[in-house]
Design a protein that fits this description.
The strands form seven sheets. The chain has an eight-stranded mixed beta sheet with strand order 6-7-5-15-16-17-14-18. Strands 9-2-1-13-20-19 form a six-stranded mixed beta sheet, covered by helices on one side. It has a five-stranded parallel beta sheet with strand order 25-24-23-30-29. The protein is of the alpha/beta class. The protein has 17 helices and 30 strands. β24 (453-457), α10 and β25 (481-485) form a beta-alpha-beta unit. The chain starts with a strand and ends in a 24-residue tail after the last helix. The chain is globular. Among the domains are: 1-83 and 156-221 and 313-372, 3-Layer(bba) Sandwich (FAD/NAD(P)-binding domain), CATH 3.50.50; 422-656, Aldolase class I (TIM Barrel). α2 (58-81) packs across α6 (338-355). Pathway: Cofactor biosynthesis; thiamine diphosphate biosynthesis. Residues 5-351 form the FAD dependent oxidoreductase domain.
C-alpha cells in the first residue's frame, strides 16, 4: 500500500526527505509557504563539521556521516534534476588569529596531529601550520593570523544550486509541490494528527512531517527560535584571478570563494526574532573581521547583501524523529548545519517513517530531551515562555522531591518564574489599583494576594481623578513593580502620549528602569472593547521607543500574532468584558493564543471568582490580571488571598497534567488480585 505523506516545509530538510521518500515508493505532498524564505537560500553552503569545532559525541557523528554521503548524494540529485550542483570537497582552512601559538603548533608543519583544544578529532585528518606555513599555503592572510588548521575533508556546496536541484528533483519524481500553501494549524485528536488546515480547507494524509525551520513554533510549541544571519558577497574584478583559493573559517567570520569569482562573507548570529533587513552594524562587523583576516577584500566591489533565519534550539542541536502524536515526525532545529545534515536527516527519517527502523543515533535528537525538567534541589521545572510543553510530556517528580517540596516552592522555583521583557516575577497574579473604597483596603488586598505587579491608570493619577488622588504614592514601589496603563485612551495617539507620561511617572517614583506599559485603546464606552487597529498601531510605535508593551486585546489569535511580531512583551486577551465578572467566555480562542504564542499570555478582564482564575492557569496561561473581582468583593483582602491561591493551584495543575477525558468509566482500583467472595 502506498503511504501518503504530507511534509510541511520546503527547505533543505523538507525537500531532501521528500526526494528520499519518493525514491522509496511513497506518495508525497510538500506544503510550502514560501520556498524563497528557506534558510538554504541564505547560507554559504559550507560542509564543515571539523572547521566548526563540533565536540565529540552524537552531533559530530551525525555530521561526519552526512559529510561522507555528500559526493554520492549530490551526484544522484544532479542526475534526477538534470541540474549541476557545485559540490567542492576543497578543504577548509581555520586561521588562528588570537596572537598566540598553541602548544600543538610545535608539531612539524603539515603533519597530522591530535588537537588539544577540541577542534580536530583523533582519527580525522587535520594539519597544523604555523604562521609561515599557513601563508605559504594561502598567501595574503592578515598580519593578525598566527597559524591555522587545515581540514582537507571539509568542503562546500553552492547553496543556490542545491536548492534549485532539490526542488526540481522533487518535481521530476512526482512529489506534489504546493507552493504558497501556508499551513495555519495542525489538527490533532486522540493522539494523532488528523489533518492540516490552510486557508483552502483541511488536507489529510497517512503520516505528517513538520519541517518548517525557523517558523516551527508557529505550528507546534517546541523550542525552536529564529537566529538571524546577515551576509554579503563581493566579486573579484572581471579579468582577474582571485588569489583566495581556500575557504577561511575564523573567529566570528567565514570567507567562502566560489569558482565563478564570487566571495561570500558571513555571518552574524542574532537573537532578534523575525526582524528583517541588513543593518550597518552587522555589515561593518563582518567586513572588519573579513578584511582583518584577508586584507585584499577591501578592494573588491560589493555585490549583494542579504539575510536569513536559522532554526535554533536551546542546545543548538536538531530535533529529529517522533513526536507526541503517533503519525507526526519532527525535523527541525538544524541551526548552522541544515545543508550539511540534509542527506543523513533524510535517510534516517525515511528509515523511521517507512520501515519503522530507528537508528540509535536518531534517539539522541529526540524532542523529548526538552521534557526532562525534573529539577534538582527538590523542585519541578516548568517549560520556559519559549516552550509550552504539553502536559502529557512532563516528567513526574521523584518521591524525594515531593517529600520536601511544598506547592509554593514548586510554583516559585527558579525554573517556574514568570519572565516578562527580561524581568522575573515569582507571582503569576497581577492586580489593579482602582475601585477600592480606600487606600488601606487596597494595600491590604495587594499584600494578601502576593502579587508583584500592580497596574496604575496614568491618566487618572495625572489628573487626580476621584479615588485616585495620591494613588501613586499610596504604595511602596520598592516592593511592587508598577505597570502604568493607558486606561481612558480612545486613540493610538492618546495612548502613546499617556504611555510616555507613565514611564516618567515610574521614574519619579524610583523605578528608573521601568519601561513597562499596559496598552489600552478603548473608544467604545458601552462594552469597553479594545480597538484592534489602534492597539496595533500604538504598540508598533511604543516598541520602537523602547517600551515593554503589554497590550490588552480581544481574544483574537491573529491579532495576538501581529502584536507579537511587532515586538510586544506579552499579549493580554480578555476573558469577557472588563468588570463584568462573566468569567472566561473566550476559552477556545485563548487556547489557540496560548498554543501559538512565544511570549507570555496574560488573561485580563472578566474573571470573577478564584475558580475562573484557576481555569485560566490550567489552560496554560502564564498569568492573570484581576482588579474588579477583588476590589468590589465584600471582603477584598480575603478575596485577594483566594485569588493568589487559585492562580498558584491552577499553575500547578497545568504542570501536573490532567487525566484524559474518557467516554466511559474506568475503575481506579485494579481488577486483579482482589479477594474472592465465596458462599459455603
Amino acid at each position: 500500500m502506498t503511504q501518503e505523506i504530507l511534509i510541511i516545509g520546503s527547505g533543505a530538510i523538507g525537500l531532501s526527505l521528500a526526494v528520499e521518500l519518493k525514491l522509496r515508493g511513497a506518495s508525497v505532498t510538500v506544503k510550502s509557504r514560501n520556498f524563497r524564505e528557506a534558510a538554504v537560500h541564505a547560507a554559504a553552503g559550507m560542509i564543515a563539521p571539523q572547521a566548526e569545532g563540533i565536540p565529540s559525541g552524537p552531533m559530530l557523528e551525525l555530521c561526519l556521516r552526512s559529510r561522507q554521503m555528500y559526493p554520492e548524494w549530490t551526484r544522484k540529485l544532479a542526475e534526477i534534476s538534470g541540474l549541476a550542483i557545485e559540490y567542492w570537497p576543497c578543504g577548509i582552512l581555520a586561521p588562528v588569529v588570537d596572537g598566540t601559538t598553541p602548544d600543538f603548533a610545535r608539531e612539524p608543519a603539515r603533519e597530522p596531529v591530535k588537537s588539544r583544544v577540541g577542534i580536530a578529532r583523533s582519527g580525522l585528518p587535520a594539519y597544523w601550520m604555523d604562521g609561515d606555513a599557513v601563508r605559504e599555503y594561502q598567501p595574503g592572510l592578515g598580519t593578525e593570523v598566527t597559524g591555522g588548521w587545515w581540514f582537507p575533508e571539509d568542503g562546500q556546496v553552492d547553496n543556490q544550486m542545491l536548492a534549485r536541484s532539490l526542488w526540481v528533483a522533487a518535481q521530476t519524481l512526482g512529489v506534489n509541490l504546493q507552493e504558497g500553501s501556508a499551513v495555519e494549524s495542525i489538527e490533532r485528536q486522540d493522539g494523532q494528527v488528523v489533518g492540516v488546515r490552510t486557508r483552502d480547507g483541511i488536507d489529510r494524509a497517512y503520516r505528517y512531517v513538520l519541517a518548517t525551520g525557523a517558523w516551527f513554533e508557529e505550528l507546534l510549541p517546541v523550542p525552536v527560535s529564529p537566529k538571524k544571519g546577515q551576509m554579503l558577497s563581493v566579486r573579484v574584478p572581471q579579468g582577474e584571478k582571485s588569489p583566495l583559493q581556500r575557504v577561511l573559517f575564523g573567529p566570528g567570520i567565514y570567507i567562502v570563494p566560489r569558482r565563478n569569482g564570487q566571495i561570500i562573507i558571513g555571518a552574524t548570529s542574532e537573537d532578534v526574532g523575525f526582524t528583517p533587513g541588513n543593518t550597518p552594524s552587522g555589515m561593518k562587523g563582518l567586513l572588519d573581521r573579513a578584511i582583518g583576516m584577508y586584507p585584499a577584500l577591501e578592494n573588491y566591489p560589493i555585490e549583494e547583501f542579504w539575510w536569513g533565519f536559522r532554526p535554533a534550539t536551546p542546545d543548538e542541536l536538531p530535533i529529529l524523529g517522533a513526536s507526541d502524536w503517533s503519525n507526526l515526525t519532527l525535523a527541525t532545529g538544524h541551526y548552522r548545519n541544515g545543508i550539511l545534515l540534509a542527506p543523513i536527516s533524510a535517510k534516517l527519517l525515511a528509515d523511521s517513517i517507512l520501515e519503522g527502523k530507528t537508528d540509535p543515533l536518531l534517539k539522541q535528537f529526540s524532542v523529548r530531551r526538552f521534557d526532562r525538567r525534573v529539577a534538582q534541589s527538590n523542585t519541578i521545572a516548568t517549560p520556559t515562555n519559549h516552550y509550552r510543553s504539553m502536559s502529557s510530556n512532563l516528567t513526574s517528580p521523584t518521591a524525594s522531591s515531593i517529600a520536601f517540596a511544598t506547592p509554593s516552592a514548586l510554583a516559585t522555583a527558579p525554573e517556574n518564574l514568570l519572565e516578562i521583557a527580561g524581568r522575573q516575577f515569582q507571582s503569576r497574579l497581577m492586580t489593579g489599583s482602582g475601585k477600592y473604597t480606600d487606600f488601606d483596603r487596597m494595600r491590604q488586598s495587594i499584600a494578601a494576594s502576593g502579587c508583584q505587579i500592580v497596574t496604575v491608570a496614568v491618566r487618572r493619577v495625572q489628573t487626580n481623578a476621584p479615588g485616585h488622588e495620591g494613588l501613586a504614592e499610596a504604595l511602596d514601589w520598592s516592593k511592587q513593580w508598577m505597570l502604568p496603563n493607558t486606561a481612558g485612551c480612545k486613540t493610538a495617539e492618546e495612548a502613546i502620549r499617556v504611555a510616555r507620561l507613565g514611564r516618567e511617572m515610574a521614574k519619579l517614583l524610583g523605578q528608573e528602569d521601568n519601561n513597562f506599559v499596559k496598552l489600552e485603546v478603548i473608544p467604545d464606552p458601552h462594552y469597553l472593547l479594545p480597538d484592534p487597529i489602534g492597539t496595533l498601531e500604538a504598540a508598533g510605535q511604543l516598541v520602537k521607543e523602547g517600551f515593554a508593551v503589554l497590550p490588552y486585546i480581544n481574544a483574537d489569535p491573529m491579532l495576538a500574532r501581529r502584536l507579537e511580531d511587532v515586538g510586544c512583551a506579552t499579549v493580554m486577551p480578555l476573558g469577557s468584558p472588563i468588570g463584568s465578572g462573566q468569567g472566561i467566555q473566550t476559552a477556545a480562542n485563548i487556547r489557540i493564543i496560548i498554543e501559538s504564542a512565544k511570549v507570555p499570555v496574560v488573561v485580563d478582564a472578566g474573571i470573577g471568582t478564584p475558580s475562573e482564575a484557576a481555569q485560566a492557569m490550567e489552560m496554560g496561561a502564564d498569568a492573570v490580571l484581576i482588579n474588579s473581582a477583588i476590589a468590589l468583593a465584600q471582603n477584598p483582602p480575603v478575596m485577594a488571598k483566594a485569588m493568589g491561591m487559585a492562580v498558584e493551584a491552577g499553575r500547578l495543575a497545568y504542570l501536573a497534567g490532567r487525566i484524559p477525558v474518557k467516554e466511559r468509566a474506568s475503575a481506579s482500583s485494579p481488577q486483579t488480585g482482589t479477594i474472592a467472595s465465596t458462599v459455603s
